[in-house]
Sequence to fold (385 residues):
Amino acid sequence: MNILLIEDEPLAAEKLANHISKYNPQAKIFGPLDKVTKVKKFLLKENSLDLIFSDIELLDGSVFHTLSEIDLPCPIIYTMTYDYYWMQAFQNMGIEYLLKPFSYKRFTNAMIAFEQLKENFSKNNTKQGESTDQIGFRRRFLLRKRQGMKVIQVEDIICLRAEGGIIIAQDKNGLNHSLVQQSVTDLESQLNPQDFFRINRSAIINIQYVQRFENYGKDTLAIYLSGLDEPLITSKTRSPNFRQWLDS
Amino acid sequence: MDSHNLKTTSLENEIAFATDYMSLLDKRFSNAYKLEILHKKETSLKHITLPCSLQLALENVIKHNQGDKDNPLLIRVNITDHWLEINNEIRSKTNTLPSNKLGLNNMRLRAEAILGKSIETIQENDQFTLRLPLIGD
Fold:
């Protein structure tokens, strides 16, 4: 585990480094960095960090401005002598706020919180990885109808949209079906990414029904699907990926 | 710290206290700040001033200015007949919160009320000087 210390008081840095070594003798400790200018230089070239411990007021000023400028590689545990900055800490990748002086026990609580977060996130990542590796993508949906159950094939679905708390699948005949599934994100992972693409927070479309698309405002696209009167609008962040997906 | 309950203290006490304080800061910041005290006249040591005012002045310098282990910020204390002057090069910290000047304003009010003479601040080029009144006994 690679840990960076940002701290302008040598004694405080030494104490923290001792805590870290006691907790995890294999941890590699970088720093301590005592100035904001050094922090910036270091973070621009080093990105193998797992965790940062950061004091807030350094010899040459406050650390937040620089941290918010950089795409941080990992979460931060802030250490400070007063609680004035805790809100800014959470806006800058903070997962914990240790008030100095803190005990070894308090320190270990923060480390345990960090490790739990890490474990939970990596679990999610492998789950997603598995579902794309499998060939077992969803081929059909079961629909609950008044007269019993009905089946709809995924290739007959033009698009799936979250509307008013439920998810609606529109089929090629123009019929709307409400699905039992609750989340667009879950559906996205169940559908083959070669055929289906999530164009914004609430809609997933089927590539078979894409007729054309055009620019729509800054960085967004209007997509026309056969069987749909109104175009669907991509979100800014997904527009570039949409072009790639369609072109592949 | 006994001087906390007193309204005034001798310059001698004040300097001894501030020197102790500074040696703690040297430990804390590994000599990123350096204190230099100049006084020519021994008599002026009997002059009186506000207790802890020199320490507050040093705190103020450190709060607003960058320290550097390789190039320490020099804080000069100069004692004249009527003033205790604290001078430093201005090396402003970056991206800090705007100051509400509470420290200096409090000191000004205390000086006016107790010593009957106000403090002075002088900002010239890249130098900042704070002058605390000294009263002869």
